[in-house]
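Question (not urgent): is this output format expected?
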Amino acid sequence: MVTTPVDEFGVRAWATTAARGADAKNASNVVILGVGHFLSITDAFVIASGTTARQVRTIAEEVEAQVSASGGPSPLRVEGLDDARWVLMDYGDFVVHVFIDEAREFYDLEHLWGDAERWTWTPLAAVSAPVDA
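Got this back:
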């Protein structure tokens, strides 16, 4: 089987889809960091958080469903679903981190990767909202 390399636009689109999936389940403070200049193993981190383990699990499930529905890849591996304090979804070209609030504050990936570019994205509700005339 031959696979086509993913260009940066594809990664941006899938990372945005993942961010929108998290947002759809009321994740808080959803950010996308472009880390490709610092890491050779992935191009972006999508970081989101929830208030309970149940919400963290639900966010992760929705991210996977929306990325798949958009024609994106399946995660190569998913870790942390058992206790759902930090779910890591490794898609290869991008990685989704869904934290429970306290764990996100403790690990503080945004600070750790503070020099990374923040990719802008628009929540789906804002994209599909009617424009007032």
